[in-house]
């Protein structure tokens, strides 16, 4: 099962759990799709868009469960990033993991995101 990842503030995710679905962060709503990363892209996404932020969660999502609403589109430097056009159904979520900041000031990713 291929996974895609969403980095999300814990408070925003708690709101999604209460609502039964995730409609995206403000940046997602402004762009018209929910931004995801592959496992290889997630650390760069964290460094670029979430540097220094704590109380984050890494949401692992079953890409196949999202069907045709998930599209891989060019972004940074032409790399293909997964974008979800529509809400994220919580039934597609496989794991929710804290994303702490390590002593070097970068986020510490769980082992399951590494090949």
Task: Give the topology, please.
Layout lengths: L2 E7 H10 L1 E2 L3 H6 L2 E2 L6 H8 L6 E7 L7 E5 L5 E5 L3 E2 L3 E6 L17
Antiparallel strand pairs: 1-4, 2-7, 3-6, 4-8, 5-6
Describe the protein's architecture and organization.
This protein has helices at 10-19, 26-31, 42-49; strands at 3-9, 21-22, 34-35, 56-62, 70-74, 80-84, 88-89, 93-98. With 115 residues, the chain is of the alpha+beta class. The chain has one domain (3-113): ADP-ribosylation fold (Alpha-Beta Barrel). The strands form three sheets. A three-stranded antiparallel β-sheet has the order 1-4-8. Strands 3-6-5 form a three-stranded antiparallel β-sheet. The longest helix has 10 residues, at 10-19. The two termini are 13 Å apart. It comes from Methylobacterium variabile. Pfam families: DUF952 (PF06108).
Which characteristics define this entry?
115 residues, alpha+beta, ADP-ribosylation fold, 3-stranded antiparallel sheet, globular
How many structural domains? Answer: 1
Helix content: 10-25%
User: What is the class in the CATH system?
Assistant: Alpha Beta
SSE order, as H and E? EHEHEHEEEEE
Enumerate the strands of the largest sheet in spatial order, edge to edge or round the barrel: 1-4-8
**Relevant CATH superfamily:** Protein of unknown function DUF952
